[in-house]
Amino acid sequence: MEHIKKYVHENKERFINELVDLLKLPSVSADSAFSQDVLNTADKVKFFLEQAGCDKVEICETPGYPIVYAEKIIDPALPTVLVYGHYDVQPADPIDLWDSPPFEPVIKKTALHPDGAIFARGACDDKGQMFMHVKALELMMKTNTLPCNVKFMIEGEEEVGSSSLSWFVPRNKEKLKNDVILISDTGMISNQQPSITTGLRGLSYVEVEVTGPNRDLHSGLYGGAVANPINILSKMIASLHDENNHITIPGFYDKVEELSKEERAEMAKRPFSLDEYKKALDIDDVYGESGYDTNERNSIRPTLDVNGIWGGYTGEGAKTVIASKAFAKISMRLVPNQDWKEITDLFQKHFENIAPKSVKVVVKPHHGGQGYVTPIDSIGYQAASKAYTDTFGATPIPVRSGGSIPIVALFEEELKSKTIMMGFGLDSDAIHSPNEHFGVFNYLKGIETIPLFYKYFTELSK
Amino acid sequence: MEHIKKYVHENKERFINELVDLLKLPSVSADSAFSQDVLNTADKVKFFLEQAGCDKVEICETPGYPIVYAEKIIDPALPTVLVYGHYDVQPADPIDLWDSPPFEPVIKKTALHPDGAIFARGACDDKGQMFMHVKALELMMKTNTLPCNVKFMIEGEEEVGSSSLSWFVPRNKEKLKNDVILISDTGMISNQQPSITTGLRGLSYVEVEVTGPNRDLHSGLYGGAVANPINILSKMIASLHDENNHITIPGFYDKVEELSKEERAEMAKRPFSLDEYKKALDIDDVYGESGYDTNERNSIRPTLDVNGIWGGYTGEGAKTVIASKAFAKISMRLVPNQDWKEITDLFQKHFENIAPKSVKVVVKPHHGGQGYVTPIDSIGYQAASKAYTDTFGATPIPVRSGGSIPIVALFEEELKSKTIMMGFGLDSDAIHSPNEHFGVFNYLKGIETIPLFYKYFTELSK
């Protein structure tokens, strides 16, 4: 393990500078205005993979943004690790809430990151965490310690639903053949208490459009006499939760896995302070489904959130208008066994059913993905657990995450292999928010831990 | 009356071209980006008032946009008519729904306007209707038929609450002294059946802000565990109406004037086809307060409409975020006897009360105004009625409008005179909407009718 510490110590400045270069590219996949930047980012990732020592690196065209594939095969008889990550990032807005420009990375110390953290969109999700794997390979190549074969598949549409990946994977099963899939796109409890994500929530993301009159109307001449699509949309959204914050869509909970008392007790052991949680978010109270605590609400329970809403006059001043249309983006987080396509259908039918005759409703499914659970008795989990224990000096706790990496379920279905989610970020790293950052400590610890996973996974595979 | 028809006939091309010039100026008072255009419009109005024959025209400075004042005093012993209008216009958005640019006027024939209509923002509300009075004065001056004194007060903030006018009027009572106030900023039933607006609704306009967590959050990591301000705002808005579409704000209806069976029967005589109404708006059904029909809902009943809503990610694609804040612009149309300040307070208290502990709510009152009723036995109403009867060949029907001209109540309070609302627009002219227009027939009829009002008002005042 000494050679690892030594190499990281000697190269950490460069490791950081190279990541900073990557973060300067605004690879926002959700906004076509950035499409050239997304493509440039793919080229940059290709460059770094070649530099790290892969002997085959390709930009694979897809119906959407390309997938960067790379491999280093040292012996077909040895196990193969497939590393997945994404080079695209979330939109940066609201930009005015960033303390520094989202694509001009700066390193600042924070209470949780005394060694400093890199502030930039994508610093943690997922450029920083993806790049740890590139640097870990470089380390193993330069120190001649790569114990097995490795493949990389880095996509550019994770933040918009990975539709091209779903197209790519079934068409390249042989090329992607592997014994375990390794992803760093999740978090851990703290820098003192590592954790490994064993469960992910699924996702169904839809956009709804409510149309009232065929044109915007004067709210004085028509107000009170015609359905106002914004009022109606608000009413429809409100009706999606009952007074206990249960979701009211018929059949929504039918397949939800209810955890046993024991499992819930296990989960409850996770260190957690409700006061600190509220303080960190500056809220007087939490809010959620009756009968479940905060950590259960955001991990083992399905949810429905409006991610965006707009309609009518939103400019400066006042406009007395009744809008013709109102819109909302709505996403549902799903738990294992809930099928996202089925839930999307249930939502669509229900939302159309509850619309009054005085408006027209269109529901456009955006994308989605299944939930997932990793067995903690698998070789992959054991190898990851030993690796963290070596580098952090503490055994990682298995946790269910509330987030979604839809493609994990796809991998299991298409490639028949399990995914290990070795996350090194913290919940406080503000991914998807202004001032996203990634601790320098976490970044370097990741680079140190990954080679040990390769070592233990290869040993345990014998 | 022949001299009137003759003058209009000989000058109508110029009348139209001068209005087109005025409409080319984007005097959007709600958006500070247009402030210079608003000021230029005031200068243009001054120019036209001088050209029409006023012997005193001033640009009166105010805390906001200036008020253009003009007068033609022929004999202090004669009655004085004060003409009010506004030179500012509503914002043009959504601009992409306009068939032609909002500030590049075009004349097109429509089913209701076989002689053509001028399409532009402000064509009807209120530049076109205000300009009829300028041209009517020119006509009376050029034909030596002005029978009384006239004053003009044209403001630039009607679309944003007339706050500077409320400042100006009390400070200029002597200057504004008059016997009747004449406004053309309302509509009439049809080009075959004129009507005079005898009632206006009051207005209370507020903006609300709901804040949940102190930053945007990842909807996977926090979804279900914290209050989503968009879901909460939707819920709060939904709760403002009950299942009968009565407004739920405590005390909201306390002072609402309930009309007698007789009055409601009188109103019901107004020609109206629900099918045509629905067809014109392309809606399958109307929607409103139980126990009242469509024409009652939008005239004698108070309402609450969301005029704009926004929050979270509203861009292209998908962003799985829980927004920190959600906003809405909400306006209430009030009926005579409801005090807008009192209603604004009731709204504010109620909205703050219904907010769950998990969010913070701010209610910002925008502006408002009182409702108003004109007695139909007044000299002013009688003079207007006779004028319309002469030019349209049909006696106008008195109607209550759902719209608000808050300053009408102010005039009565400060200047102690009644306002006559001689509107020449049609409900279908799409004021406050894309493709606003004003019929050439209506424009010229207005210029013909106004001098007759002066004539009859002067005679009846003797």
TrEMBL record, chains A, B:
Family matches, as InterPro entries: Cyt/Met_Dipeptidase, Peptidase_M20, Peptidase_M20_dimer
- Enzyme class, broadest EC rank: hydrolase
Q: Which residues form the Peptidase M20 dimerisation domain?
A: 199-357
* UniProt entry tagged with the keyword Acetylation: no
Q: Which UniProt keywords apply?
A: Dipeptidase, Hydrolase, Metal-binding, Protease
Q: Which GO terms describe its molecular function?
A: dipeptidase activity
Q: Per its UniProt entry, which superkingdom is the organism in?
A: Bacteria
Enzyme Commission number(s): 3.4.13.-
**NCBIfam families in the record, alphabetically?**
PRK07907.1, PRK08201.1, PRK09104.1
Protein name per its UniProtKB record: Dipeptidase
Q: What are the top taxonomic ranks of the organism? A: Bacteria, Pseudomonadati, Bacteroidota, Flavobacteriia, Flavobacteriales
